């Protein structure tokens, strides 16, 4: 008997949403298809029909969680693409931090589970989905640094910015214990204030690096000119 298209779509969506919750909570290995199906109100045959395997469901659940997260927090942060690079970086960083701190963002918890107990199942989909975000960060960094800063230094700046955004402390905003203990690590109470700090800190560092490279370049050019003049004077 053929399943009505509307009913099939609803079942698939229910499986994805439920799988997101359970995989984010327990990780791939500790989650079971039986538990997912029970909570979703369907049966194991539905998983096989829509996804083919637990592995495929895991991948699609992460992809769906990522997609929903990006919809909620677009990478531009609402900043126009023709805005100055400083403003575009601000929008990008703010959107990234809000995404990481969002209590509804299961994508983050998937990654936490993966780091603690890797499966290798998300490697390809991560390259596919995360790559555009990495390229966006890299492009903004290069635009702000200018052409004189080396690719190596530009990569270090990119890693520095994203490390500030991906710090586990960011995720504690809105997720941490209500009553913190004295020995608990610090908690970020205002994600927008922290975003502003990351932007100012990163821009200041890149500005200093750019200025240093420009001064070095001008010094080298000046040295070459002097050497040329001295050589010319000696031959006259």
UniProtKB/TrEMBL annotation:
Q: Please give the PROSITE patterns that the UniProt record associates with this protein.
A: HTH_TETR_2
Question: Where in the chain is the DNA-binding region found?
Answer: 32-51
Q: Which residues form the HTH tetR-type domain?
A: 9-69
Q: Which GO terms describe its molecular function?
A: DNA-binding transcription factor activity; transcription cis-regulatory region binding
Keywords from UniProt, A to Z, are: DNA-binding, Transcription, Transcription regulation
- The signal peptide, as residue positions, is none
Q: Which domain of life is it from?
A: Bacteria
- Which parts of the sequence are annotated with region: Disordered? 216-236
Question: What Gene3D superfamilies does the entry give?
Answer: Homeodomain-like, Tetracycline Repressor, domain 2
What is the name attached to this protein's record? Transcriptional regulator, TetR family
Task: List the top taxonomic levels of the source.
Answer: Bacteria, Pseudomonadati, Thermodesulfobacteriota, Syntrophia, Syntrophales
């Amino acid at each position: 008997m053929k399943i009505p298209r509307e009913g099939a779509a609803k079942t698939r969506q229910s499986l994805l949403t439920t799988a997101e919750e359970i995989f984010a909570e327990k990780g791939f290995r500790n989650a079971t298809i039986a538990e997912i199906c029970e909570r979703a109100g369907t049966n194991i045959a539905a998983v096989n029909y829509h996804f083919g395997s637990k592995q495929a469901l895991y991948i699609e659940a992460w992809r769906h969680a990522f997609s929903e997260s990006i919809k909620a927090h677009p990478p531009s942060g609402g900043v126009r693409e023709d805005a100055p690079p400083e403003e575009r970086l601000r929008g990008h960083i703010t959107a990234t931090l809000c995404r990481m701190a969002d209590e509804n963002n299961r994508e983050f918890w998937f990654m936490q589970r993966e780091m603690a107990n890797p499966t290798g199942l998300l490697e390809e989909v991560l390259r596919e989905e995360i790559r555009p975000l990495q390229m966006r960060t890299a492009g903004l960094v290069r635009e702000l640094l200018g052409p004189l800063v080396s690719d190596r230094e530009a990569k270090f700046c990119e890693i520095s910015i994203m490390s500030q955004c991906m710090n586990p402390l960011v995720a504690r905003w809105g997720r941490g214990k209500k009553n913190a203990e004295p020995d608990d690590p610090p908690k970020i109470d205002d994600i927008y204030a922290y975003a502003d700090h990351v932007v100012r800190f990163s821009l200041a560092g890149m500005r200093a690096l750019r200025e240093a490279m420009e001064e070095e370049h001008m010094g080298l050019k000046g040295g070459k000119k002097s050497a040329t003049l001295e050589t010319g004077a000696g031959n006259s």
